[in-house]
């Protein structure tokens, strides 16, 4: 059943290594069929290049397996919590992509520093509070989803306008209208995190410019009437 | 009409992903035919690998579409403002390339720190002032161009000698005698931004050198009469 | 003899350049056959792409060569010290991979900052104390192994739970149940070191967010009823 | 004449882009035939992928062209100053490789921080003093060579033991017994500069470790009797 949904989710999962967002099996993508209330998700621990159509697991919104022989991603319950609470989203991605994860590890929101960010995320991508011991030791993956949904509610952030979150000491979850869009948003999140990290590095930029005479020498060695670089003249 | 110009602009746009300067559709290149007063530019939102000759849009210097079925890049008006004000330039590039954009997001000029910079840019690549609310809410892309032209005028910078700018909280615009040269200058801007960011990181370099005896051990393990690394002797 | 062991070690060594963990010949992998007490290891100074099955050197646990015409890796004695002391491990990797080595050069433990780390290493990956002059000038590679084993004992770290170490001013040694798992752990160590270095960079993140009006402009240029980016509408 | 020398220099130049050490034409390699007193060097401004055997320029030790129709690299005089002063070296490389150049731009020696450095360079790779206006405005490339040779003499550094230098506000020159070895040393210099830059970043590492309970959760989710990640059990 739902071969198209499974095919879409298969392809979206294979995009993760293609975009350099994952190492080994560290990521998973799901998509929901809202009409049928069925979610298709990557199986746990299967390498992307070995992943086949029939490996994709189908579950209902309570996490009951409807089709598939493999265990679903251990992050399934986090995905489901999003689908249950946010009715406009259709696809979810989880990765440990390097730059976004660095912000999660530092416990920092990814602030909107420029228009690249603004083109995709309408404000800071929030970093959640630390989870409590009870949440971690309880139904951990479900509680992760609850903490995220709570964070958006408490801060008054619309998940349709900011389709990503950083889980404290963990990494990003990203979503969109479908799995493919969620992957696209994951790529952008990583790009923006990279740029913002570098911008942060530049905060205390106090380094001196080069000597004017050396600037003259090199520019004029290549440009203007006295240039002597290359094979010209 | 102007098939050569369109072909040149097509190829120059395809260089952006080849040089790693863009993600998805985040960049555009144009070139002007000064004699005819016609500008060829990338259409908005079309992926580089799907871009065909007939997708390239031709406009006059007021932005009226002369040929082409697609919407031109939303940055068209910024390009045109350059062509109208700076008579020596023939090609313009806009990207969100990572390192240059980081400087734009930090609101910092890219200072001339070394001869790599000096070979292409005769002094700091300026970062513009922030745009006013009126400029942003008005004819935004045109106003972006005006703020850039103003920045060069106010600071007395010759756009032929410093063929690039960083737009505050946004990213770089780069130009040159034609589209191909503008792309080359974009590559160099990115390289120089990368080097300058790293040089900035080194400002407070206070880390200790290794022990002399360990230096001796390793150097002499591989070099001189008592070397024992590898298959030698 | 032990063709399977040699084949496994050959393939594991070739994974080092495939995963970008080595430059030139800067790394080596070994695996032990516990039943026979034989260790297979890369020969010293041979490039990975020239490495053949018969180049792999077999030694006993005292370092006596049992088979092979080439000198074993100069780090052999460090590997053997691990096999002699830690009975559960089956494979050892040494590299100078960039990010892990940076922590070794800074003389810092790689702290557990996030779940990527926690999925593989149960606590900080320790950096050893500096070696003494006597240790360096004595049987250096053996002493390196001893310092590492001492570090784990003194700190009460279980090498089965934290399968990696950073040798001060040098680089990482990594292990696992076999050579392949030790290589996998080496990849993870490098990823985690990269993420932790970036998280460190973010500590003093004080950069200002962009203007709200510019955020509005760019988000709404691409999303919602007034979007005008791309070819839509 | 000297076809072998020209072939060696041709191949060594083509290694520069292969190792990611150059952008466009920003680098050159030479080698000397000590017996004949002839130096073979890359022509100025010719892209590496267009470089042919007959493009290689032969000169004597005074810079007189002995064979070749093209202008030699503008850095020729710097190379020659090394060959005239340091009798053991046979090959010279100049690049603007990113990480080494960043140290040059920051005006900093590349200190020996670890054994990767010690395996190739017996102590810090020095950064030269700034050149004087007279030196820059005079016979610039020759003066560059003189400043480097002076730096090694003044500091008592043996160019055979530290086969590289950083020219202030410019970039690295690297040498070795022949062109191929000089390229190898250039690769190592870049690697070491990268590692040292990262080690510098870590100096003020004060970031907190993750919660113990989250560390427990994730490690034990994948390891030990209660693991539930993947398809096992």
TrEMBL record, chains A, B, C, D:
Pathway connected to this protein: Carbohydrate degradation; L-arabinose degradation via L-ribulose; D-xylulose 5-phosphate from L-arabinose (bacterial route): step 3/3
GO cellular component: cytosol
Superkingdom field: Bacteria
Keyword Methyltransferase (UniProt): no
Reaction(s) the record says it catalyses: L-ribulose 5-phosphate = D-xylulose 5-phosphate
Keyword Metal-binding on entry: yes
Any Pfam family matching the protein: Aldolase_II
EC id: 5.1.3.4
Source taxonomy: Bacteria, Bacillati, Bacillota, Erysipelotrichia, Erysipelotrichales
Names of the cofactor(s): Zn(2+)
Keywords: Arabinose catabolism, Carbohydrate metabolism, Isomerase, Metal-binding, Zinc
Transmembrane segments: none
Gene Ontology molecular-function annotations: aldehyde-lyase activity; L-ribulose-phosphate 4-epimerase activity; metal ion binding
Name of the protein in its database record: L-ribulose-5-phosphate 4-epimerase
Organism: Absicoccus porci
